[in-house]
Design brief:
Order of helices and strands of chain A: HHEHHEHEHEHE
Radius of gyration of chain A: 17 Å
Number of strands of chain B: 12
Distance between the termini of chain B: 19 Å
Order of helices and strands of chain B: HHEHEHEHHEHEHEEEHEEHEHEHH
Number of helices of chain B: 13
Helix content of chain A: 25-40%
Oligomer: heterodimer
Helix content of chain B: 25-40%
Structural class of chain B: alpha/beta
C-alpha cells in the first residue's frame, strides 16, 4: 500500500485512473481535484487519526457528484486504502458515485443531491460556535451549477446575517449552470456581506492564499474559475 | 346518536403549543446539548429563550430548507436540535431535507409541529397538512408522537429531547379532555373492554372515539405513539375480542397505519377499517376543524356510523 508520506499531487491522476465507470462526471472530478488537494495538503487541520476529533476542521463536499478526485485525495492522504478505489461503486465498496459518510470515515457529509451541503455547513458552524469550539474552520465546496438550487440562497443570506466567520465556501465555477450567472457568482455572496475573492485557474499558491485570507467579520467565499464545461 | 354528535373539541386553557413553548424554555435552560431552530413561526413565543441562549436558539427567518439543513449540521457537532414550525413547512416543504440532511446523514433531531391536519381550517389548504404523518412514515427510523393532551405533550417532548433518534412530535389544537397515556411508554392503553372488536384511537381523537362507542360492545385502545406502533399490544387486544376486527381512527390520512395493523395480525384472519382524513379529494372549504371532521367522518357521529356499519 502506498503511504501518505510518499503520495503526492503527482500521484493523483494514477489514483483517479483506478476509478472507472463514472465518466459522466469526469469533468466534475477534474475541476475539483486541485482545490481538494490544496485543502488537504495545506489548509485543513485534519488527519486520518483525527477524523472524530471535535476540534478538527471540517470539509464538506456538497458537490457530491464526480467524487473521484475526492477519493483520490483521501487515498493520497491516508484516509482510505488506495486499493479500495478500484472497486468503487460495487456492492461491497464503501465508495459510491456519491459519498456516504456512514460508510467511509473521514467523509463529513453524505452528498449527491445538490444544494444540501451549504445549509448543513451552516449548522456545523453554528454548532461549533454554540459549543465553544472557536478554532475549527468549516469549508464547503459547491459548484456554479449547484448554486441554481434555491436552498443555497437561503444559506448564503443566512450565513451572512449570522456572521459565520469560521465558514468558507469554495465555489468552483466551470460555467456549468445552464442559464448562467450574469455578473458572476461572487456578487451573490458579496451582497450578503460575505468577504469574497476570485481565483482564475488552479494555481495552488493562489488558491491557498485566497482560502487563507482572514475574514473576521463574516463568512468567506472563494470563487474558482476553471475551464468551462462543454455543453 | 345525539350525545355523540354533541361531543366536540374542548377548548383547553393551555394549548399544546403553549406547553411546547414552556417545555422548550425549561429544557434549553437545563440541557446544554439542546438547540432550537425556528423559521419565524412561534419565534415571538420564545424570545426569552433566545435572549438567554443566543447561540442555541436560531431563527433562520422564512427559510425552511435551511432550517432542516442547519439542524442536520448542529446534530453533526453533537447537539440535539429541536426544530419547530407548522407541519406544512416543517415536513412537506423541506421533505428532501428530512430524508437527506437528517436520515441520510445518520443524525437525530426532534421535529415539533403545531397546527395539525386542519387545525387552521380557516387559513385554507396552504396551512393544512393531513399527510404529514404519512410522509414521515415513508422515512426509516422515525418515532412519531401524537399527544392527545397538553400533559401528554409535556411528557413526550421531554422524552424526545433526551433521546438520540429522529422524532416527530405532532401537536394539535384538538385535544382530549384528559390525558390517557402518562406512563411514558409506547404501549397501547386500554380505555374500555368489549367483545365485538377493537377500536384504536391515535392521539386527539380519543374523546370522539369514546363518545362514538359509548353504546357499543367494543374494546377501545389508545396510543399517542404512532411510531413505533405497539403491534404486540394491538394483537393482544384484537385477539381478546370475539373476532379480530379492528377499526383504526387516525386524525391524518386514512389508512396510514393499516399496514401495521395487518402486520400485527399477520397470521390471523382479520378485518380492518381505516378511518381518517379522506384522500380522494381536496376539501376546498374553510370553517373550523370540527367542520372538517364532519366532512371526513371523524366527528363522533361519523365514527359511530362507520363502526356500526363495519361490525358483524
Amino acid at each position: 500500500m502506498t503511504t501518505a508520506t510518499t503520495t503526492g499531487y503527482a500521484d493523483l491522476p494514477a489514483l483517479m485512473g483506478r476509478m472507472t465507470g463514472d465518466e459522466k462526471h469526469a469533468l466534475a472530478a477534474s475541476s475539483t481535484v486541485d482545490v481538494l488537494w490544496v485543502l488537504y495538503d495545506r489548509i485543513l487541520r485534519i488527519s486520518p487519526d483525527t477524523v472524530d476529533d471535535p476540534d478538527r476542521d471540517r470539509f464538506l463536499l456538497s458537490k457530491g457528484h464526480g467524487p473521484a478526485g475526492y477519493y483520490a485525495v483521501l487515498a493520497a492522504k491516508g484516509f482510505l486504502d488506495p486499493d479500495l478505489l478500484t472497486g468503487w461503486g460495487s456492492v461491497d465498496s464503501p465508495l459510491g458515485y456519491h459519498p456516504d459518510r456512514m460508510l467511509l470515515p473521514g467523509v463529513e457529509i453524505s452528498s449527491g443531491s445538490l444544494g444540501h451541503g451549504l445549509p448543513i455547513a451552516l449548522g456545523v458552524a453554528l454548532g461549533l460556535r454554540a459549543t465553544g469550539r472557536t478554532e475549527p474552520r468549516v469549508f464547503v465546496l459547491v459548484g456554479d451549477g449547484e448554486l441554481d438550487e434555491g436552498s443555497n440562497h437561503e444559506a448564503i443570506a443566512l450565513a451572512g446575517r449570522l456572521g459565520l466567520d469560521r465558514l468558507t465556501v469554495l465555489a468552483i465555477d466551470n460555467s456549468s449552470a445552464s442559464l448562467g450567472w450574469p455578473g458572476g457568482l461572487v456578487g451573490r455572496f458579496a451582497v450578503e456581506g460575505w468577504q469574497t475573492d476570485t481565483v482564475l485557474g488552479l494555481d495552488h499558491d493562489q488558491l491557498a492564499a485566497a482560502i487563507s485570507m482572514p475574514h473576521p467579520d463574516g463568512p468567506l467565499a472563494v470563487v474558482v474559475r476553471t475551464t468551462p464545461k462543454e455543453k | 346518536m345525539t350525545t355523540a354528535a354533541q361531543v366536540q373539541t374542548e377548548e383547553l386553557s393551555t394549548t399544546m403549543r403553549d406547553t411546547f413553548a414552556q417545555v422548550v424554555n425549561e429544557a434549553l435552560d437545563a440541557d446544554p446539548r439542546l438547540a432550537l431552530v425556528l423559521a419565524d413561526i412561534s419565534a415571538s413565543m420564545l424570545t426569552g429563550a433566545k435572549e438567554r441562549h443566543p447561540d442555541r436558539v436560531i431563527n433562520v427567518g422564512i427559510r425552511e430548507q435551511a432550517m432542516i439543513g442547519v439542524a442536520g449540521g448542529l446534530a453533526l457537532t453533537g447537539l440535539r436540535p429541536i426544530v419547530h414550525s407548522f407541519p406544512s413547512f416543517l415536513v412537506e416543504r423541506p421533505f428532501e431535507q428530512l430524508k437527506l440532511d437528517l436520515g441520510h446523514q445518520g443524525v437525530g433531531a426532534v421535529l415539533v409541529s403545531a397546527g395539525a391536519s386542519y387545525d387552521m381550517a380557516a387559513a385554507g389548504r396552504t396551512h393544512q397538512s393531513p399527510a404529514d404523518v404519512t410522509l414521515v412514515d415513508t422515512l426509516p427510523g422515525w418515532t412519531i408522537y401524537l399527544p392527545g393532551h397538553p400533559a401528554e405533550a409535556e411528557r413526550l417532548l421531554y422524552k424526545a429531547f433526551t433521546g438520540e433518534d429522529r422524532v416527530y412530535v405532532r401537536l394539535s389544537g384538538q385535544a382530549n379532555r384528559q390525558p390517557y397515556a402518562l406512563d411514558g411508554s409506547d404501549r397501547l392503553t386500554i380505555l374500555r373492554t368489549g367483545r365485538r372488536g377493537l377500536v384504536l384511537a391515535v392521539g386527539p381523537v380519543a374523546d370522539r372515539v369514546l363518545a362514538a362507542t359509548e353504546q357499543l360492545d367494543v374494546t377501545v385502545a389508545y396510543t399517542a405513539t404512532a411510531r413505533p406502533l405497539d403491534g404486540a399490544g394491538l394483537r393482544a387486544a384484537a385477539l381478546a375480542a370475539d373476532q379480530p376486527d379492528v377499526v383504526l381512527v387516525e386524525p391524518y390520512l386514512a389508512g396510514t397505519s393499516a399496514y401495521l395493523v395487518n402486520a400485527a395480525l399477520d397470521n390471523v384472519p382479520h378485518r380492518v377499517r381505516s378511518l381518517g382524513v379522506g384522500r380522494e379529494t381536496e376539501v376546498r372549504m374553510y370553517g373550523s376543524a370540527d367542520d372538517h371532521d364532519a366532512v371526513h367522518g371523524l366527528d363522533a357521529a361519523g365514527i359511530h356510523a362507520s363502526i356500526v356499519s363495519f361490525l358483524r
